[in-house]
Amino acid sequence: MQNRRNVIYSLLILCLLGGFFTGRAFFFNLSYLLGILLTLSLLWSWASVSAIQINRQTRARRTQVGKTLDEFFGVRNSGLLPKLWLEVRDHSDLPGHHPSSVVPTLMPRQSFQWTTRTTCIVRGEFTLGPMTLISGDPFGFFQSSRYIGATSRVLVYPAAVPIYDFAPPSGVLSGGDARRQRTHQVTTNAAGIREYAPGDSFNRIHWKSTARKDKLLVKEFELDPIADTWILLDLYGGAAFARPYSIEGGVTSDLFIPPTTTEYAIVTATSLATYFISKEKTLGFGVYSPARQVMQPDRGYRQLVRIMEVLALAREGSIPFGQIVATEGHHMGRGITAILISPDPSEAWINEAHAMARRGVRVIAVIFDPASFGAPSGIPTAEQTRARLESGGVITYTVQQGDNLSAVLSQRRETVR
To answer: In terms of CATH architecture, what is 229-409?
Structure first.
């Protein structure tokens, strides 16, 4: 494009020089023509990126690794001049998201639409936009651009693999008694019936008693006698291991887990949270990512969303897992199930896990093989860490880089004494 303009500039100078030296009107007329051509081309180039309406619609602002993000784009020429060519460049920072497109010729009042579907491969919060419109004149002398600074945000949750079975949580509360507490939630423990009240769901109506008493009666429920389940996640940067990897060229699998203990631990925590929430269990969650994030036990989809929001933005912290377990585990008593997820092979958190087990807490640990994640020699092996945990009555799952997490976490294990 620059070379084309240089040719016209050179011809314009030659024509002016020829007119001055020869005095012939032909050279002056030709120079005027070239000057008008350049001026009109410049104005056309500017007009090509004006009077353009662009519409961008994102189907959902929250998605998950392994799922798709769909975006709809529409460009309309609202001007009087045709847009011979138009390029839309998108500057989103979502990995693998490339909605940029070249728009064909748009006549006045004409529109062009396209849809982009991107498989999300990395968790986190990302920016969609801004965009740049680029066009030019019919002769290719000039190129103009127009910056559109509008942006939006999209949150990508971590991946969750399906878990079909897992070490069951404890079924005994302190004292061995069920909780005699009414709850508005539907549980597996029916406690009795009462008269229907405005706002009661129809699925709680006890139809046999309603027919017998000739009035609407609904079921009442008690809290599940199984105690709370807690997930404590270790994101201590000093105990993280990782292999080099790159996502610039894209990945072949829809479910891509970077070969780092941090990402494997986050996927594990997300999968277990999804598993227990789907079983209608009461779940608590704690992580330092790097700020303290602790959610008291609750059940339902809202609790799962809160956990996934935290994990989507989680980063490595500076507090060792031993301190976290000691701080957050002191209130856990007999009957509670604590799931500890950590790549750290150090003794500190293992000793805290043993102390929790001695207090009657059912402790389940998910550890990661340091060697498979490229840890240097001299680091305790996964077998050694597992042996130390199981010696204190801790149920242990071992994960290696490249493992099928669904298969590994779906193995039912019992306490080894």
So the answer is: 3-Layer(aba) Sandwich (3.40)
